[in-house]
Specification:
heterodimer; A: alpha+beta; Beta-Lactamase; two-stranded antiparallel ribbon; 4 helices; 7 strands; 32% strand; B: alpha/beta; D-Maltodextrin-Binding Protein, domain 2; six-stranded mixed sheet; five-stranded mixed sheet; 40% helix
């Protein structure tokens, strides 16, 4: 299933247009603003996907922070949140780690439906039943501001080397 | 056959009589002999579980994972509209107004409640605090955690939200919540062990009728009713606990 393009009338504030191509070769037009939604204290964003990365479970904090409705998120690919400032290498590391049965932790800049963004500290684990991966559970929590600054800078460097390559 | 029932040691003291009333109700509903054993702490309760001494348990979500995966307990119900949330509290006159104000070396007072401690440590992450750069002191009860805050022996205290709100007004007004969790999908649950699983259907019928048939018993526990938990829902909660560990 490919995601529909983002719509300019759903964007809040000044935006830049990008086209993202995902690992399944589908692509999508997105609009990105510089507006950050602060991660609320005490909240955990929780979701589960099937082995192909499509969302099967989510909690209210996911809905609230992403700006999408629950109906829009269920059965959508998790990359609906992919922000163009995130280097592909970060997600390659995530998938290599979880498909080998291990837990992945990392800092992620997520794209909201309104074009804004929010930073999370994410943990993803493969859910293994009878020796096979049946799903992935992901929990996102509030990151430290210093970590956001560090990773924003690191990802910028990684992204520019990905573009020049 | 005599069965054994236990309750997660993080129950609030005012509900102890309620759990004895509930056990009496359960014996009548099942026409079976059930002994209620209340443990002082999580460690002694876990030893009893490990030794297969427990047949039915009102379990903390942290223990539910072990009970379902290792001990083959089956989920039955959870209290309607209740979820486990944590509060990090400070003394009422503390200079700290948000988590980010806390510094390395922060003194923590807490109980041995595993899910509250886990949720609370997560809420400290925005201040880059962890087990290595904080000092923790484990107390037997939440009232002792409150005492540590009030007497200035700790900078912050970890509380089960329900326990924090159940403290006397005199104690509670000397503290304030620095941050509260809003997770909503973690809750205690009633689980039945393998020996007692043949009685599951009878017990489930009685539990789901309880709000009309025995509202006073529910009231003594501080619950509005019971909500069924299916295996899928329990697995999601266990996966979440695994992810956070």
């Amino acid at each position: 299933m490919s995601l529909p393009d983002m719509q300019p009338d759903e964007i809040t504030g000044e935006y830049q247009e990008h086209t993202l191509t995902y690992h399944d070769q589908s692509s999508r037009r997105i609009f990105v603003t510089e507006i950050e939604t602060p991660y609320p204290d005490g909240h955990l964003i929780v979701s589960r996907t099937n082995p192909e990365g499509y969302i099967t479970h989510l909690n209210d904090s996911f809905v609230e922070m992403s700006g999408y409705s629950r109906q829009e998120l269920i059965n959508a690919p998790h990359y609906i949140l992919r922000h163009p400032d995130m280097p592909a290498a970060a997600f390659q590391d995530l998938w290599q780690t979880v498909t080998s049965g291990k837990k992945w932790n990392g800092y992620v800049k997520n794209l909201r439906k309104d074009g804004g963004f929010y930073w999370v500290y994410a943990t993803v684990i493969p859910n293994i039943r009878k020796n096979s991966v049946v799903s992935y559970t992901s929990v996102r929590r509030k990151p430290a501001r210093k970590k956001i600054e560090h990773y924003a800078s690191l990802y910028k460097t990684m992204l520019s080397s990905e573009h020049s390559a | 056959m005599k069965y054994h029932f236990t309750v997660s040691p993080d129950f609030t003291p005012e509900h102890i009589p309620g759990w004895f009333i509930f056990n009496t109700w359960m014996q009548k509903a099942l026409s079976e002999v059930i002994h209620l054993e209340l443990y002082d702490n999580f460690e002694s309760q876990r030893k009893a579980i490990q030794s297969n001494e427990i047949d039915i348990i009102y379990a903390n979500p942290y223990d539910a994972a072990f009970l379902v995966r290792e001990k083959k307990f089956a989920p039955l119900v959870k209290p309607t509209g209740k979820s486990d949330e944590a509060i990090i509290a400070v003394h009422e006159s503390s200079p700290f107004t948000c988590v980010e104000d806390l510094q390395p070396g922060t003194r923590i007072s807490r109980t041995d409640d595993p899910d509250v401690n886990m949720m609370s440590m997560i809420m400290l992450e925005p201040a880059e605090l962890d087990k290595q750069n904080t000092q923790s002191c484990t107390r037997d009860t939440y009232i002792l955690v409150a005492k540590d805050l009030i007497q200035g022996n700790a900078d912050i205290g970890f509380f089960l939200a329900e326990a924090f709100h159940d403290l006397s007004k005199l104690v509670r007004t000397q503290m304030r919540a620095l941050v509260s969790s809003h997770i909503r999908i973690i809750s205690h649950s009633l689980l039945v062990g393998p020996r007692m699983q043949p009685l599951t259907d009878t017990l489930l019928t009685a539990l789901t009728d309880m709000s009309s048939s025995s509202p006073a018993v529910l009231e003594s526990l501080g619950f509005d009713g019971w909500t069924l938990i299916n295996e899928e829902e329990m697995e999601f909660m266990i996966d979440l606990m695994d992810t956070l560990e």
